[in-house]
Amino acid sequence: MEFRFSKMFAFLTLTTLVAMASHAAAVRQPLPQLSYWNSVLPNTPMPKAFSELVHPGDLVSKNFLRPAGAENQLDKATDALGPCAGLVLMEKDLHPGKTVKYGFPRDTTSKSSRFVSRPTAESIPFSSNKMEEILKRFSLRPESAEANTIKETIDYCEMPAMKGEERYCATSLESLVDFATSELGSNIRTMSTEVERGVNNDVEQTYTITDGVKVLAEDKVVTCHKMSYPFAVFLCHAIEKTRAYMVPMEGADGTKANAVIICHRDTSKFAPNNWGLSQLHLKPGEGPLCHLLSDGHLTWLREKNLDDQYIVSVA
């Protein structure tokens, strides 16, 4: 009896160890999105804006609405700027000593919407013609605020590109990588705005541009904007004659930031009611239009551009 019990105990112990080893191996197994990134972009570090959205499992969020009073992503969206954050300025103003009023809020709400795997994303309709099916998939009422936000996002993604623009709404990290590499090749990097995090980042204050304004790219860049959706969706687009800058700033309270600013140098194809142009009292074609990339938005650059970046000289 004792011998039989010992054999049973040994068997159960071995079974438990095998199960634990299998679980440990599964835990060590890279997520499909990470494996795909590393296979296509082995020399490109994944930015935090993406890595914090990659998690095991295909979970969707019901907390993807922006807080009450927060700027709606589409209120200031245009055919060229995308869902930008609202700070627009002239290219000639990107020099040390220039002051701007701005705040750098961290978009914590949109980060609850994470990437799902490509097979899952492709199994869920993403079309204004499939709204009923989409809402059923997410268990949402047609009259709900969430349903309206989903419709707005899809409608914006379906807007036709203007002349000289390539645009695409990526519903998975893999499809986002595919679009960026199709536009720029595989030798690329990402850049995003960086700011010292403090208790007053959300508060608008005076920021002064400091020494060290750099041109990051003078030809083609791909800019990606995080949209409001139950899982991570990015609107990515490339516009001809676009220049990217890294602009150091310091707030009145001492907060330091390195802001990525995108300048569209040819606005002749922009819509007459373009929000950014109206803020600068410009008409299409009258001058370059620049906008700051806020939290959760980033730009892709060819690697050679980073090697060739230079300091802007001020006369």
Q: Which properties best describe this structure?
A:
315 residues, 28% helix
Q: Can you tell me about this structure?
A:
28% of the residues lie in helices and 22% in strands. The chain has 315 residues and is of the alpha+beta class. It is globular. It starts with a helix and ends with a strand. 33% of the residues are buried.
**How many strand units?**
14
Q: Which overall shape is indicated by the principal axes computed on the Cα atoms?
A: globular
Order of helices and strands: HHHEEHHHEHEEEEEEEEHEEHE
Q: What value does the average pLDDT take? A: 82
Percent of residues in helices comes to: 25-40%
Compact overview of the structure:
With 315 residues, the protein is an alpha+beta fold.
What order do the helices and strands come in, and which of them pair?
Blueprint: H1 2-28, H2 32-40, H3 48-51, E1 88-89, E2 99-102, H4 118-123, H5 131-137, H6 145-157, E3 165-170, H7 173-184, E4 188-191, E5 194-195, E6 205-209, E7 214-217, E8 222-226, E9 234-239, E10 242-251, E11 256-264, H8 275-279, E12 289-292, E13 298-302, H9 303-307, E14 310-311
